[in-house]
Amino acid sequence: MADVRRTVEAVWRIESARIVATLAKMTGDVALAEDLAQEAVVDALRQWPESGIPENPGAWLTAVAKRKAIDTWRRRERLDDRYQAIAHDLAASPSVDPAAWQPIDDDVLRLVFIACHPVIAREAQVALTLRMIGGLSTEEIARLFLVPVATIQQRIVRAKKTLTAAKVPFEVPDPSEWRARIGSVLGVVYLIFTEGYAATSGDTWMRTDLANEALRLGRVLAGLTPREPEVHALVALMELQASRFAARVRPDGTPILLADQDRARWDRAQIGRGRAALARADALGRGRGSYALQAAIAECHAIAPTIDDTDWARIVLLYEALGRLAPNPVVDLNRAVAVSMATGPASALRIVEGLAADGALRGSPLLPSVRGELLARLGRAEEARSEFVTAAGLTANTRERGVLLAKAAAL
To answer: DSSP string of 138-159?
Structure first.
């Protein structure tokens, strides 16, 4: 049973966005689509221990959820033409044929645009997208944003009710509406990528499936909006960061930090694609936005032969510009790391102490982790050890916890 549960969880993480997108297209109701998908998951947990795991679990879940949709319409006595057409198709193919299930990429993109619809608040857009596209649980989303689980639950429930009440259609908006909505869409796409780049929970350091899906969505968006520099910049940022994936973990899953990575394993072709995307953004001549500045930072890392040969002074400058354009305590914390590499840990520690005093990152492992690094470099081993232990207690990712505890033990 434990194996089946792990399989179901893995399938849900990888396939949930396409399953929900397919159901949303079929039903025209995002909330109903997610409910049906969850009911199919419950069926899988009940049936698979006896029947065995199907060859294509995603297809199985989708087919079961579709049949549940039809049952729902039957109960509601809404036997309209759409039901009859779909029921006929399913009757013609009573058994699940894995080859017959071809996820439509654009359905996922439509789902992103729906989740980012302006009728729902920004924080609800992010929560709903991470839930439906990223497949994150409410607990994981709550940890990501350092808010109570109940808050995230309320945001998601309210967002789905609002979409239903507003009768938001399941479609990519008209091109004339893209510019107004693209900022929200880019924001959630990058959040999905960052969760894949550094998972906030679980026992894996990365979720490359999630990051690659975000990158795919970014590439599609760039094709749809070739005159939007920040779309190209986001693609550049994701390409450059994804180029390090192969070097970020050992075969046993143990994380490898930037300073210890074998740069020969970085994907040079992907770095080339990232730099080309950043050049396309710059060529549009509208100045660099927040994603372009982050991509420029990633480019500094990508072209440096070693960590010591990295242009840290330029990275500090880019973080300063980013902080003025998009103030954020995480940006300030990253700037502190760059400052420590450019001029030493003492000046960086003052930035970190200022952030600690503000309390903006309270509850996050990021701040004590960086503070521990700086204290260790200053020779304040006992304080550094305490910070690493504190950070380890705040993370829900077992791999990250292991790294932090190893640092504490090494002091």
So the answer is: HHHHHHHHTS-HHHHHHHHHHH
Q: Say what the pTM is.
A: 0.73
- Three-state DSSP state, 304: coil
DSSP 116: T
Helices (H) and strands (E) in the chain, counts: 19, 2
SS3 397: strand
Q: Which structure tokens are listed for 336?
A: 């502190």
Find the DSSP H helices in 146-228: 149-166, 175-197, 208-224
| Residue 406 CB coordination number (10 Å) | 13
Q: Mean pLDDT for each consecutive 10-residue tract of the chain (411 residues)?
A: 76 78 80 84 86 86 86 65 58 47 56 83 84 78 78 89 84 71 85 86 82 86 86 97 95 91 96 97 95 98 95 97 94 96 95 91 92 96 96 91 94 90
Q: How far apart are CA 135 and CA 129, in angstroms?
A: 9
